[in-house]
Design brief:
Strand order of the largest sheet: 1-3-2-14-13-12-11-10-9
Radius of gyration: 20 Å
Number of domains: 1
CATH architecture: 3-Layer(aba) Sandwich
Keywords: Hydrolase
Protein name: Beta-lactamase
CATH class: Alpha Beta
EC number: 3.5.2.6
Number of helices: 13
Domain Beta-lactamase-related: 24-341
Order of helices and strands: EHEEEHHHHHHHEHEEHEHHEEEEEEH
Enzyme class: hydrolase
Number of strands: 14
Strand content: 15-25%
CATH topology: Beta-lactamase
Structural class: alpha+beta
Helix content: 25-40%
CATH superfamily: DD-peptidase/beta-lactamase superfamily
Largest sheet: 9 strands, antiparallel
């Protein structure tokens, strides 16, 4: 049930092999559906689709919309880098100035800044109050709780991954008589002409075709689930929806094909190493390839067997997503799935293994 668009050329035999093996695994574990795209700068995107939107539903195609989950953070990093480039904010702006009502480390001489937020180096315990997000506490209540936390380390000194803290940006734009969704639409979606990209539950469900979420009963049995509101209320962390057509455009933008919207300087800024992420080195399916790992500004930066790879993954109930690009090779990849399957970790790692091995063979000819 996979479709290659356009037809793969002879030199893409490695991609066909990867796609075939991926489909075989998907069939073995009864995955509802997925889409993936391979982009080489300046060339047509190669999109592969598999499965259906729901039981007895439509076939998934290039226009089917999925939740991006934490891949949304890549958009937040770029949007904030654009705001900094426009002198609307600074990476050194303290959260206390951005949302003063919460009193974030008011008496600390080393305040948490916008840069710390986007680089996941606030110092708070990792995933602080994700449980409150999932319990549907209000955004303001969660931010008040966060502001009272004692940090594990000084801001900028250790990697501490967050979701709830990204609510600062949601609240900030509400206070500015705007919204984060509007800023993202005006700053990225519209100028890049992303045809199906949106934010929020309403944005997903008003799409002409969207993939329903599926949760695991066993490793190879899936049950359709309801779309959850919880993380949607933290749009910068996990609120974006997109089709694989949109993701092809996003990857192209990160490869520098739309400099009038996202400059090379902004790309360099968000993919510059800010904090070491030692834990990533132990990722199953990835650890044999990774030589180093850092977080930038909304993007992870990996040393994948000597190649720079910028990456982010996402997971919310019923969905998984990955996006990545190798700037030196000028290629990128994304995968969206309407099932919360860990197979996506293996798929993405194996994609890059296959790509770099093929690239090395070509260089040696």
């Amino acid at each position: 049930m996979h479709v290659f668009q356009p037809v793969l050329a002879e030199e893409d035999a490695w991609l066909y092999d990867f796609a075939s093996k991926t489909q075989a695994q998907a069939m073995k574990y009864n995955l509802p559906g997925y889409v993936l795209v391979f982009v080489r700068k300046g060339e047509p995107a190669k999109i592969i689709t598999y499965g259906v939107t729901e039981n007895f539903g439509d076939k998934i195609d290039r226009n089917t919309v999925f939740r991006l989950a934490s891949v949304s953070k890549t958009f937040a990093g770029v949007l904030m880098a654009k705001k900094v480039a426009e002198d609307q904010l600074s990476w050194q702006t303290p959260l206390l100035e951005i949302v003063p009502e919460y009193g974030f480390n008011r008496l600390d001489p080393n305040p948490i800044t916008l840069g710390h937020l986007l680089s996941q180096s606030s110092g708070y315990i990792p995933n602080a109050y994700d449980n409150l997000i999932e319990a549907n506490y209000s955004l303001k209540r969660v931010l008040r709780q966060l502001a009272k936390l004692e940090p594990l380390c000084s801001p900028g000194k250790c990697y501490t991954y967050q979701n709830a803290l990204f609510g600062v940006l949601e609240d900030y734009y509400t206070n500015q008589k705007s919204s984060y969704a509007d800023e993202l639409r005006k700053g990225i979606f519209q100028p890049l002409k992303m045809p199906h990209a949106s934010t929020g539950k309403k944005g997903l469900q008003s799409s002409s075709k969207w993939a329903k979420p599926h949760i695991a009963i066993t490793r190879s049995k899936w049950r359709e689930s309801k779309v959850q509101d919880d993380y949607y209320r933290y749009g910068p962390a996990a609120g974006v929806n997109a089709s694989i057509e949109d993701m092809a455009i996003w990857v192209r933008a990160m490869l520098g094909e739309y400099p009038e919207v996202i400059s090379g300087q902004i790309i360099d800024t968000v993919t510059s190493e800010k904090i070491k992420t030692t834990r990533e080195m132990r990722r199953r399916d990835w650890r044999r390839f990774l030589k180093d790992a850092h977080y930038g500004l909304g993007w992870r930066i990996y040393d994948f067997n000597g190649h720079k790879l910028n990456y982010h993954g996402g997971w919310v109930k019923g969905y998984r997503a990955d996006v990545s690009f190798a700037p030196d090779e000028e290629v990128g990849y994304a995968m969206l799935m309407n099932a919360e399957s860990n197979l996506i970790n293996s798929f993405t790692a194996k994609f890059w293994q296959a790509y770099f091995e093929e690239a090395e063979e070509v260089k040696q000819k």
